[in-house]
Amino acid sequence: MKNPNGYGGISKLPGNRRKPYRVRLTAGWQRHNNGKLLQKYHTLGYYTSRRAALIALADYNKRPYDLNQQQLTFSKLYEQWYDKHTARLSKSSRNSFAAAWKKCSDLFEQPINKIKKSHMQAVLDRNQHLSPSVQTRLKTIFRGIFRLALENDLISVDYSSYLEKTAAVSQTTRSIFTRSEIRQLWQNLDLALPLADGSRHHYTDVSLVDTVLIMLYSGIRIGELLEIQIAHIDLKKQIIDLHGTKTKAAHRILPLHKDILPLIAARMHGTYLIETPSGHKLTYDTYKKRFFELLMAKLNLQHKPHDCRHTFISGMDTCGVSAGSVILKRIVGHANADITESYTHKNIRQLLNAVNQLKY
Predict the structure, then answer these.
(1) Is residue 127 part of a domain?
(2) Sign, CA torsion 130/172/354/288
(3) Residue among 272, 290, 291, 289 at smallest CA distance from 281
(4) 105 is in which domain, residue-wise?
(5) Does position 18 have pLDDT exceeding 50, yes or no?
(6) Given this model, what pLDDT does residue 27 score?
(7) Where residue 318 sits, what CATH number does that domain have?
(8) Which of 76, 158, 269, 327 has the fewest CB atoms in 10 Å of its CB?
(9) In this structure, are 53 and 79 located in the same domain?
(10) At 92, which CATH number?
(11) What is the DSSP string of 80-122?
């Protein structure tokens, strides 16, 4: 609680060699059982020298704060930050922040005023073997929590601003699908694999090979693909109104390559483009682990889902649509794409002309 009297005392504790000076704040009076009034105190902190104790007391009297609030833990502030920061993000994005947060378990119960740069840096260094995106999310979490703490006078120094880059993380090698591999996928369109169908113990053979081809011919991300609703597809115009949330540019018009139009048309039922036979929406993890990885093993291919997007961008570049061009950035939803122009009939036609240049 705040010090009502603006008074504090410093005492030396002989038995405490490491931090022998204690700063106490008066906090009113309390009547003892014998009827006498006793002064109540709250401990502001323990310090290594009298000078440090005097500075702490002066700082407190200059800007009094709630001592109970100052003891808020890292995890409590994370909950406040997470609810506000991720409110408008997609489920997959929220899950990615939640997964990154689990890497900070050592700090969960630490009071925010006890967290220093070294604590957060240790988390980053310990996870430097993971992807750069995980490092970025961790830093976003740290900065968000410390900004919230500063705004509420819980701390006076933003240690998150001093975090250093971790050792260079080896970039994941992107493997482009070869033409023969893409032909192999076309030849195995009817290949079915067992997929969990709304129950942990019940699996149904499902054919999803077409979804890999859709990604290869559109550059769409898995998370975006699984969010597509039938209502967002216009087969006549050959487009999908893609409601992506990864970046501002992720919400875009996706032109459909002529070769995958029949694949899209065959899935025009239910609510979502990609569903299980019982109508359940697929999650990212289910698609990746229970289908994509099994399919790659079945066909003896060495690829990750994002290789589809990388293959598309590379293929478009080979066909004359540069990876740095605005039109390709608009198709794949890169954050630096020029999206100020509305999607008129003219520029939708430009997108379709561009994507249909792709030939594997």
Answers:
(1) yes
(2) negative
(3) 272
(4) 74-162
(5) yes
(6) 65
(7) 1.10.443.10
(8) 269
(9) no
(10) 1.10.150.130
(11) HHHHHHTTTS-HHHHHHHHHHHGGGGGGTTSBGGG--HHHHHH
| Mean pLDDT computed over 313-328 | 88
Neighbour-count burial for 103-115, b at 16+ CB within 10 Å, e otherwise: bbeebeeeebbeb
Domain assignment of residue 246, yes or no: yes
Average pLDDT, the chain: 83
Among 170-179, 282-291, 310-319, top mean pLDDT goes to 310-319
User: Which pLDDT band, with edges at 50, 70 and 90, does 69 fall under?
Assistant: low
Say which residue the tokens 């988390």 belong to: 123
171 belongs to a structural domain: no
Taking the model in full, what pTM does it have?
Answer: 0.55
Strand order in the sheet with 8-12: 8-12, 21-31, 37-47
133 found inside a domain: yes
Identify the domain boundary among 46, 64, 82: 64
pLDDT at 1: 40
**Number of domains within the chain:** 3
DSSP code per residue over 264-289: HHTT-SSSBSSB-TT-PBPPHHHHII
Structure confidence by residue, pLDDT tens digits, 154-184: 888 899 999 987 654 444 456 899 999 999 9
- Kindly state whether residues 60 and 101 are assigned to the same domain: no
Q: How many angstroms from the chain centroid is the CA of residue 227?
A: 17
Q: What is the 3-state secondary structure (H, E, C) of 116-151?
A: CHHHHHHHHHHCCCCCHHHHHHHHHHHHHHHHHHHH
Residues 305 and 213 in one domain: yes
